[in-house]
Amino acid sequence: MPSYRFSAAIGVLRPGVAAARLLPELTDDARTLAIVEASSIAVVRGEARVVIRFTGDDDPDARSIALGIFGLAGELAELSAPELTRRVGNRWIAVAAE
After folding, report:
1. What percent of the chain clears pLDDT 70, i.e. is strictly above it?
2. CB burial of residue 14 (10 Å; 0-12, 13-18, 19+)
3. Is the pTM of this model over 0.70?
4. 8 in Cβ contact with 49 (< 8 Å)
5. Which residues neighbour 50 within 8 Å (Cβ) at sequence distance 6 or greater?
6. Class of 3-94 per CATH?
7. Start-to-end Cα distance in the chain
């Protein structure tokens, strides 16, 4: 089963959302949709990004899972620059939008 990675820049948290709550909630939600391999919040080029790596049957399945993650994430914080990539060998390749 291919490995995919969803990532998005994290902006302002929604009112009442604690920073410590963001990653665990997104990871738990992603686990209802797919097998989560890893999750983290990283600083990339000066901005905080949430990264969730998961398995999916194929690209359409992975897009559906990523949309689910993005939907919940949008309820918790302002997000921008979402990306979905697929692991091919030792590289991450962008998954084209439909």
Report:
1. 100
2. exposed
3. yes
4. yes
5. 7, 8, 10, 22, 23, 26, 39, 40, 41, 73, 79
6. alpha beta
7. 21
